Amino acid sequence: MEVLEFILIVILISLSGVMAPGPLFATAVSEGRYNKFSGLLISTGHAIVEVPIIIALFFFGALFTGEFLKSVVGIIGGAFLIYMAFMEINSKKREFNGKRTSIRAIITGSAMSLANPYFLIWWMSVGFSLALRAISFGLVGLIIFIIVHELCDFGWLGFVSYTSSKTVEIWEKSQNILSMVSAGIFLIFGIYFLYSGLTSILAG
Q1: How buried is 54 (Cβ within 10 angstroms: 0-12 exposed, 13-18 middle, 19+ buried)?
Q2: 7 near 142, Cβ under 8 Å?
Q3: pTM of the prediction?
């Protein structure tokens, strides 16, 4: 796999995850009414939890690296992505809380990440698969993975909060569109991960 291909995969999967309307997205919209930079603070709290997980998965994968492990994790990750696609398609409209949270945005970003069961499942499957792919490029791959993934979070949530003070109604109405876009990307890469993993196992 080429570096540019890896970066593209990380960008698309990361954006599809952060764009899907959920707790972090809803908080960025809600808090953006009071602080247009709250999305960056929420992303910081999210990154405090997320970056150590990425590093741990990378070095764990490096210790037990092998095509079979990559294939199995890829299959699990692909299955979870397809599951997430159907969850997005069947999800109900979210309600945004217009009240200011009493918890600082950074703490909120960390707390919502830890309290979301799908967050850990995502990293144990899809995220782990991406970490294993990063191993092919050594420590440079780890740095690229972290930077690209976190930039997607900071860029999107920052954009949402910055614009939500004047366009919160637009964000509320766009939930279904964002869900369909995310579901489509989840489904495509879910099939890709499954196909790659199964092909590798059968070829071995």
Answers
A1: buried
A2: no
A3: 0.79
